[in-house]
Specification:
The structure is a single chain. The chain is mainly beta and 233 residues long. The chain has a single domain, classed as Jelly Rolls (Sandwich), CATH 2.60.120.200. Helices cover 5% and strands 42% of the residues. The chain is built from one helix and 16 strands. The strands form three sheets. Strands 3, 4, 5, 7, 12, 13, 14 and 16 form an eight-stranded antiparallel beta sheet that branches. Strand 12 and strand 13 form a beta hairpin. The longest helix is centred in the last third of the chain and has 12 residues. The chain is globular and about 55 Å long. The termini are far apart. This is Concanavalin A-like lectin/glucanase domain-containing protein. It comes from Gigaspora rosea. One of its GO terms (molecular function) is carbohydrate binding. Keywords: Lectin.
Length: 233
């Protein structure tokens, strides 16, 4: 177990037989100790060995659109996954940006996820050598005011890009020579396309390719409504 302050390791201990649990995470308060008096950054991230949870609670966009720097994300070698929950408030006559890690919409966009104009059909993208983008579109158009669990996976060893909706594989394509990049990850906005209007929660960025079974279990966890999300699932 380790603790860091301002990027420096200030304490650690060896630990074994750790007991994890499914209780809520309380920030700034508990049942018996004094409450924290002061300020915490509005950007709360949970960093684990293979993923970063950039935000957990339902977050309104575009009011709280996010940008996470490359060096704040888990280090990616040749595969990654992104999972989140989404509730779309309105369609748009332009493409809607869900997330984009890259220079812009036309160069270095690994990974990226957009909704198509007018009908909000999911499209997942990545950049490859000799052909600036590779994409897959499948599944149904997203309905308004309805919560969806979305998962995007990309793997150079597997030579495959996939996306899942509500725990089910709805689109995939073979892909090779994937070009990863060191640009920031933008969530809910980009330079050219429309901002996302609605809510997202539990946005996780992984440096591994999640399996179909792991994605389904992830969906079931949130579908059980333990997070208290409002709206239809």
């Amino acid at each position: 177990m380790e603790i860091y302050v301002n990027g420096e390791l200030v304490g650690y201990t060896n630990a074994k037989d750790i007991i994890f649990n499914e209780f809520p995470l309380k920030i700034g308060h508990s049942g018996s100790y004094a409450e924290f008096q002061g300020q915490l950054s509005a950007k709360v991230c949970l960093m684990f060995s293979d993923y970063l949870e950039i935000f957990s609670e339902p977050t309104y966009f575009p009011t709280n659109k996010k940008t996470t720097q490359h060096n704040e994300l888990p280090s990616v070698t040749n595969e990654l996954s992104v999972t989140f929950q989404l509730n779309l408030e309105k369609h748009d006559s332009n493409w809607i940006t869900i997330f984009l890690k890259g220079e812009n919409e036309h160069h270095a966009c690994t990974p990226a996820f957009w909704l198509s104009p007018n009908d909000s059909k999911p499209h997942s993208y990545c950049s490859v050598k000799h052909n600036w983008i590779h994409y897959v579109s499948a599944g149904n158009n997203l309905e308004l005011n309805k919560w969806y669990h979305i998962a995007y996976t990309l793997s150079e060893p597997q030579k495959r890009m996939e996306f899942y909706v509500n725990g089910e594989l709805v689109g995939y394509t073979d892909v090779k020579d994937i070009v990863f990049n060191e640009f920031p990850l933008k969530i809910g906005h980009s330079d050219e396309y429309s901002d996302f209007h609605g809510q997202m929660s539990n946005f996780r960025y992984y440096n591994i390719r999640l399996s179909a079974d792991e994605i389904f279990k992830n969906y079931i966890l949130y579908h059980s409504n333990k997070l208290g999300l409002k709206g239809d699932f």
